[in-house]
Here is the input.
Amino acid sequence: MKRTNELFAIAATFNSPNDIINAAKSIAEAGYKNFDINTPYPVHGMDKAMQLKPSKLGYITLTFGLSGAVFALLFMWWTMSIDYPQIIGGKPFFALPAFIPVTFEVTVLLATLSTVIGLLTFIFGFPHNKHSLHDTNYMKKVSADKFGAVIYADDSMFSQTNINELFTTLKAESIEFIYHNEKESYPIFEPKFLTFLLAVALVTSGGTYFILNKLLFMEPFSWMAYQDKTNAQEKSDFFADQYGMRQKVEGTVARGYMPYPYMGQVNPPQTLANPFLPTKENLKLGQAKYLTFCSPCHGNFADGDSRMNGQFPNPPTLHSTRARDFSDGMIYHIITNGQNVMPSYAAQITREERWAIVNYVRVLQRAKNAKDSDIELIQKGLINAAN
Amino acid sequence: MQQTNLEYHKKELPKKLEQTGWIIFGAGVILAVLGFALDQHRALLNYLMAYMFILSIGIGSLLLIALEYVGGADWSVPIRRVVEFLAAIIILLPLLVLPLVLNIHDIFHWAHDEAVNTDTLLKGKSPYLNITFFIIRVFAILAIWGLFYYLLIRNSNAQDKTHDQFLTKKNIILSAIFIPVFAITITLTSVDWLMSLEPHWFSTIFGVYFFASSVVASLAAVTLFVVKLKENGYLHPKLVDDHLFSLGALQFAFINFWAYIAFSQYLLIWYANLPEENFWFLHRWQHGWEFLSLLLIVTHFIVPYAALLSQPAKMDPKRLKFISIWILCAHFIDIYWLVMPNFEGYYFSLIDLVVPLLVIGVIILIFNYRSKKSNLVPIGDPKLQKGLDFRVP
Here is the structure.
């Protein structure tokens, strides 16, 4: 590395930890502020000898540790008990004991990461790859078996003769003058650098390809893929009928499921009536489900004017006399069973939601064919049109 | 080495200490006897708590000595005598345990034949939980501890005169044998005296829990004595705050360890929610015990954790003194929390004062007695100088 003529620092090496403690004490007592000690391993008592103030790094650790704890707890509180509450093991939504290990981990993670990053950026000035101490004999010695002290040239008390004298009286093993590095430029389009980039790209993509396409299909990594279990639609030797997927036991009904006995018939019996009153909540539910499942064909206001119009057997308007004369049960039957090209929606929409849609369709029909009495009622303010 | 020895001159502990010890101990004994006359059951439970408190400090201190030898620690050599004096409690234990052994029936539910015969679970546990085997275990364990105490201390004391390095080596081997023995015996002790108060309960981590709290308590007692003795100039003059830092750091570590173990026990039982395990915690969350449970978390973890978090705090003698007393109080709450909720709802009785009085009295007396017989610094230990030179980075 090329060096300028400008002095960067004067460095001295010592033979034993006791010498370096002694040297650090003398340098600090002589009043130097901008100096440093380099040792191959931590020497106890150094902070005091150098008269260092306690490091401020702990505050970074504390701040990030605490914010990690708060963040983890708030995150779990919001996801687990507010945004998407799920019952897990019969525990409360905000299950503090279960959250504590995660909180602890996040606290430790943020605290350690912030300590390392804080150390590198604030204290070492990372990336500091042009430090003038690099590539000196001094640095080689203190990385092996010597103990070094270095006084920087920008110290206010810096004087070559004084420092030389000080190091000599401290019985330094060697004294070295270190000069500033010459500024070097690092061109991006250097062949070496480009080759290196290419090699990294090849190794990374080749390695990824090998792992994902080859390695995972070799023993024993493939064991996860081939397990001793029955997948959906698969044949099973365990059961006599060889069905992997089991039928439900005859005569049983799933919890909360109401069977619909009129599937496949053209008309439901006259007695099929809407068990739900058109309350505000019920109509809101019906509106939401209508807009989700029905409006793509029948249109937002049931006019049959959706974008499907013209590309498909036209979906009918629900405001025709025929549709208005349907009983509630008939509309429910059509949704449940399907009609002509309209498929059954029994699997997508629950029973209660289907009846809610029926109520909502009735509201739409009434709105398009309002009687004079209805308009009078609205004018009197007895009905709020917005609802 | 020779110079180091000259700097230390033995100073006798003041007479006043012994008098105070006798007064506190006497008051404790009188209160215990009075309590025994008024409410025999409660007095016995209080005596059990006092016994467990004393035992935890004694055996915890013996472990600290063994750890020093096995770990090859230097920093703790100058203060080892303080730990040894506290470990001397072990020789008193066979005497202190007698009132409990004589009243097994009044303390333990499993000691009643008619209860065991109608209870499948207790019947299943009876090969272990029966009076004969219990008494054998108690005295065998105390004998083992006494033996190790005697051998370790005899070598340590002999070294003061002979300066023989070989004795340190002997103690290292003894300590290496003692540590696994300690692990087994402390588990059995905690199961016998504390866990079997609720014989239907299951918890495999309980021994570790008691180990953690006994090390916390003995570290607090050691720190308190070291700071007090150092302030009044009874220890080596070259002892500095850096040695206190190590004690503070160990306290901080074991406070965390205790919380970790206590929480692990709670978390697993809370998660599995099995009726044969969870009732133990449910008892501690009803009838007023919930306040003591919360108090335990605050006093035994949150406050000492916050107080000892920063580096300067760990070497501040004033703070260490305060936090050591605080932790000893928290240890009392801990043992109270382990014992009392097994029996009744929360209420405070004057008989409960038996515990602190007896504990403080016994510790002061045994410490004073031992301090008369040997130096307060192990002047013959080859590592003493290195220990005195110890500095925090």
Q: What stands out?
A: The mean pLDDT of chain B is 87. The first helix of chain B runs from residue 2 to 7. The interface with chain A takes residues 242, 263, 266-267, 270-271, 273, 309-312, 390-393 of chain B (CB under 8 Å). Chain B is about 75% helix and 0% strand.
